[in-house]
């Protein structure tokens, strides 16, 4: 009985050790993302007697990650962004400006571990 119990414990320990030695395998992944921004437009001093104030905006989007190797992957995103500003004259809001555009960032991602990655890439914006 002691031998059977000992073999059972040994086999469980070896199984645990073998799973601990497995490398993490990167697969195709994707999902949704979102962001908030707080922006304002800057006007030249002589352009208008009023002031611009900050305004909240948002940026929902999606992403897709394609692995190229064990540590490198390619990530493409698409975001719909809204930025804006409020215009005040004599402490009264007289205008509400917004710009909406689509951003398409593409990154090379270097996976430095299971939970750490470094991105390098660029982005194109379409107004």
Write the layout of secondary structure elements.
Blueprint: H1 2-20, E1 29-33, E2 36-39, E3 51-53, E4 55-58, E5 61-67, E6 72-89, E7 92-111, E8 117-126
Antiparallel strand pairs: 1-5, 2-4, 3-6, 5-6, 6-7, 7-8
Would you write up a description of this structure?
The protein has 127 residues and is mostly beta strands. Helices cover 15% and strands 56% of the residues. The chain contains one helix and eight strands. Strands 1, 3, 5, 6, 7 and 8 form a six-stranded antiparallel beta sheet that branches. Strands 2-4 form a two-stranded antiparallel ribbon. A hairpin with a 4-residue loop joins strand 5 (61-67) and strand 6 (72-89).
Question: How many β-strand runs?
Answer: 8
Q: Give the overall pLDDT as a whole number.
A: 79
Biggest sheet architecture: 6 strands, antiparallel
Q: How would the global form be characterised?
A: elongated
Q: How many helical stretches?
A: 1
**How far is the first residue's CA from the last residue's CA?**
75 Å
| Main structural class | mainly beta
Q: In sequence order, what are the helices and strands, one letter per element?
A: HEEEEEEEE
CA-based gyration radius? 26 Å
Low-confidence stretches: 16-22
Helix content: 10-25%
Percent of residues in β-strands = over 45%
Task: For the structure shown, list the relevant keywords.
1 helix, elongated, mainly beta, 8 strands, 127 residues
Overview in brief:
This protein is mainly beta and 127 residues long. The chain has one helix spanning 2-20; strands spanning 29-33, 36-39, 51-53, 55-58, 61-67, 72-89, 92-111, 117-126. The longest helix has 19 residues, at 2-20.
């Amino acid at each position: 009985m002691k031998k059977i119990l000992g073999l059972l414990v040994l086999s469980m320990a070896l199984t645990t050790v073998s799973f601990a030695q497995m490398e993490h395998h990167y697969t195709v992944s994707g999902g949704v993302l979102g962001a908030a921004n707080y922006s304002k437009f800057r006007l030249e001093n002589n352009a208008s007697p009023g002031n611009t104030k900050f305004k909240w905006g948002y940026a929902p989007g999606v992403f897709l990650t394609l692995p190229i190797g064990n540590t490198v992957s390619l990530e493409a995103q698409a975001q719909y962004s809204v930025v804006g500003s409020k215009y005040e004259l004599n402490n009264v809001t007289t205008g509400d400006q917004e710009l909406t555009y689509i951003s398409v960032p593409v990154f090379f991602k270097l996976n430095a571990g299971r939970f750490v990655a470094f991105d390098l890439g660029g982005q194109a914006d379409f107004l």
